[in-house]
Amino acid sequence: MREMKALLFHVKGAMAHFRKVFSNSTSLSYYFPPRTTLMGMIAGAMGKERDSYYEELNQYEISVNPLTGLRKIMFGETYLDTDEVSVTSLRKLKQGVPTGREFVVPAGEEFLGYEVVVYPFNEVMMKSLRAPVYPISLGPANMLGWIDQVQEIQCEEFNSISGKINSVSTLKPEIEKDIRIAIEEMVPRAFDSGRHSGPLTTYFLEIRGKPVTVKGSAKGVKCGERNYLFL
Amino acid sequence: MTKINNNSEILFLYEAKLTNPNGDPDDENRPRMDPKTKRNLVSDVRLKRYFRDYIISKLGEDSVWVTKIEGKNVDATERLKRIGSPKDVLAKCIDARLFGATIPEKGEQKGKSTSFTGPVQFTWGYSLHKVDMVDSRSITSLFSGRDTGYGNIGKDYRVYYSLIAFHGAVSAKRAEITGASEEDLKTLDNSLWDSLVTETVTRSKLGQRPLLYLRVEYSSPEKMKGDLRRFVKVKEKSESVRDLTDLEVNLDALVNLVSSNDVIKVVARCSDDFKGFCEQVKSACDEGKKNCIVG
User: Fold this and answer.
1) What CATH code is carried by the domain that includes residue A170?
2) Under an 8 A CB cutoff, do B226 and A146 touch?
3) Less Cβ crowding at N or C end of chain B, within 10 Å?
4) Mutate to test the interface with A, among B173, B178, B233 (most CBs of A within 10 A)
């Protein structure tokens, strides 16, 4: 086992929207920010421009777990039709496109939050997360959030696990009393330079952030008493 | 034009009494509600619409990018020509500079557009307490559409009372890209409040009143505290909230934030109900020798 440092932070906000890559006219949301969204969040904090960071940030492993209970709610919205160049559509003289948008909101608390672990540790990243260049958001720019608890932690790598984990995982959790597992299918993990997502992954998460028991081969880190599997 | 040098954050509180603050088109235009928490929700788009409509009434429709042009058929190509390139949109339209814009480009590629993310972003607003919907919701209209001799019965949903809070952030870094200036921010500071007074005069929007506007400017372009609604504590004094007097609003944490060294400038505006808060902000500013505009 290799002992290495990792970066841990919390990201919080009133509402979130992590658009499912396969949703078309209706914007559905994942329960948690996919690895691609977290990369975008970190890149924004570091002041990197859109599409400029995939290769650099792809070298990092990222783990995420809800800190608070999560719920989804759905609302109707009307989008502007920008398919054609016309001021009539842009200025809403013409009918807009009615659609639904799903949001993630906290269950039982005022704000929702996620714990994020980035491995290996990067000093510049840590400084940027403490003083982000662009505002932090949980999905689109209007889902404003903030970051706290940014810290350096000591961890050990592992390639297989049998026991409790504190993160979203690709391994199926054991059925236990009082856990609420959500399955999120077709979640992107990485972008290539053309902004195409590669294979889409299925993840399991406990929607109140409780630890779950898993067994199998998966990469992750043990940091103190907590085990994190990578997305 | 003065450059925006630092990040700011905004807190805007207003009340909605016997009105529909933001109807959901997918749900018979009922006020947007989180059914589980009974919180009343208002989209950021609704808030920005008030601002845009206000600016149009003051400066004309060419100063706003996303707007309706009522009663006029517009030739699209001519209109775009008049506005010009995406750069011109930013130069002419204050909403594009502040909130950003998606500008379609004419060309071979269908659906191509230029997007700017604006320095000013608002989250969805929500009520700081449980909100009840008005029980009776049927209205009659004499315009039946049919010659039956009777009126039609329609639906009209309203909330009894909602104290709505919006959080906004101003990014100095993003202002560099859209060219938003300190003067634009000043317009936002002044107009958001006024728009809530003058643009809520339609039947479904009457009964809304701004209560408190606060913009705190931080000491650097990388500083942000995050959602300012965290600094507002609201307690419901009675089982059902029908008025501001049924709520106990505690803003102590907000006064502490204003007094902190991270904040260098404050713009605050209070209704009579929150006069005490503005006085506290003013004395905190005087003590810390901060640049404050309190009105």
Assistant:
1) 3.30.70.2660
2) yes
3) N
4) B173
